[in-house]
Amino acid sequence: MATTENLITKINNGDNKAFRELYGNDPAELSRNAKRYTDLLKQFDTEFGKKDIDFFTSPGRTEIGGNHTDHNWGRVLAGAVNLDNVSVAGKNNTNIIRILSEGYPRFEVDLSSLKPEKSELYSSAALVRGICSRFKELGHAIGGFDACIDGGVPKGSGLSSSASFEVLIGAILNQLFNNGKVDPIQIAIIGQYSENNYFGKPCGLMDQTACAMGGLITIDFKDPSKPVVKKVNFDFVATGFSLVITDTGGNHADLNEEYASLPIDMKAVASELGAKVLRQVSMDQVLEIIPKIRGKVGDRAILRAIHFQGDNQRVVDQVAALERNDFKGFMGMVVDSGYSSYMYNQNIFPVNNVREQGVSLALALSEIVLKGQGAWRVHGGGFAGTIQAFVPQNLLDKYIRTIEHVYGKGSCKKLFIRHQGTGRVEL
Question: What is the C-alpha to C-alpha distance for residues 28 and 15, in angstroms, rounded to an integer?
Answer without folding.
Answer: 11
